[in-house]
């Protein structure tokens, strides 16, 4: 079974998007905290 982006189930794709959003949010929080401390 070959993996291609077109055949990723919606549920898995949603989970991946959610993980990315959480990572981005974490980075934004880190940067904001650093700026506030500076």
In short:
With 38 residues, the protein is mostly helical. It has one domain (7-37).
How would you describe the overall organization of this protein?
With 38 residues, the chain is mainly α. The chain has one domain. It is 74% helix and 0% strand. It contains one helix and no strands. The longest helix is centred in the middle third of the chain and has 28 residues. The chain starts with 9 loop residues before the first helix and ends with a helix. This is ATP synthase subunit alpha.
Features:
38 residues, mainly alpha, rod-shaped
Task: Record the SSE blueprint.
Blueprint (H helix, E strand, L loop, with lengths): L9 H28 L1
Mean pLDDT: 88
- Characterize the biggest β-sheet: none
Unreliable parts:
none
**How many discrete structural domains?**
1
Count of separate DSSP helical elements: 1
Strand tally is: 0
Broad shape: rod-shaped
Counting copies of identical and different chains, the oligomeric state is single chain
Order of helices and strands: H
- In what range is the share of β-strand residues? under 5%
- The span between the termini is 51 Å
């Amino acid at each position: 079974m070959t993996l291609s982006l077109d055949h990723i189930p919606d549920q898995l794709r949603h989970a991946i998007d959610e993980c990315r959003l959480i990572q981005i949010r974490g980075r934004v929080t880190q940067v904001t905290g650093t700026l506030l401390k500076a």
